[in-house]
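note to self — DONT lose this again. spent like an hour looking for the file last time. sequence + predicted structure for the chain T wanted, 379 res
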Amino acid sequence: MQIDDQPIDLVEYFSHIEDPRIERQKLHTLPDILFIVFCGSICGVESWEDFTLFARCKLDFLKKHISLSNGIPSKSTFQRVISRLDPEAFRACFLTWVADFDSSLGDVIAIDGKVVRKSFDEANEKSAIHMVSAFAAEARLVLAQEKVAEKSNEITAIPKLIDMLSLKEATVTLDAMGCQRAITKKIIDSGGQYVIAVKGNQKSLYEGIKKHFNHFFDMKNHKDVDVSMTEEVSRNRLEKRECLATDSIDWLKMKDDWVGIKSCIAIRSSRTINGQKSTEFRYYISSRPANAEQHNKIIRSHWAIENSLHWVLDVVFNEDESRIHSKNGAENMAMIKHVVMNKLRIAQSNYPIKVSLKGLKKTAGWDDDSLLSILCQRI
């Protein structure tokens, strides 16, 4: 990997967070601590104790970039500092960082939530944190995140997340939890478009769309709807997707309640695995024109947030097994993992050979030049 002749922007963007410690406790500077945490997270560190161990092993590398005038921070220092950082200030730095490259990320932004399962704090009666993230589906980069408040759900977090995003010419995709009138209005008012799944939580809307489309699927003449068919074969699996879209929605009684709605979509997905066939129907509302081919791609791209974000956080970053939960620790570490994932994605796209994210993390741990290159990557 060629090392970019650029400053390490993580230091540039994230070193301005207010240090929560009193002056006499500042044996190690906040930029030094953050630099070690970012580097360690790239290389696979998963606990406070391991950050100290990582710093000992990478001491020569670290001294080239930070002072470490008082030696290596202890486990308790990493825990105390990261857990006490203001998540709102950290998120603001993240958003400023992302704003420098979000104009080239493509036009589909998937929004979905994930629970960090072992982040619950039983001693302080705090439940596991639930983070809702915005994900650029084409570039596979995290754009923003919002923690779901205690005793609340994603419906309250999604509008806050939308307020953080630049939605001009972007299409927001949401599962059925986000199928709310206020959310469609906020997306349109923010200059974006939407494609949102409809299920039983909006019963009248769901039943109306389902009833309208069901008689179209087996008709040979689809003159009243636009149709797109795709077929994928992978080893012992065959999947057929039939997408129907219509912008003739006068039959939809509550259409005026949904700001910006222009079309309704139905998908019949048939899977055959080892000779066993299953069929699933899904329904959507959209502020986009009734182009079935485009909607088929957009809806399919929404699942990038499951496969390229949530799955990666669990498998590559082992997030669900993390027991970091004190104060703001879990929320801040979740955002740090988003930063690191973005860096790894950009590095992966520039790598001279095909390499997995796990492979990149290992390479960074083995080779200092590779770690530096990942740190310096910009889109």
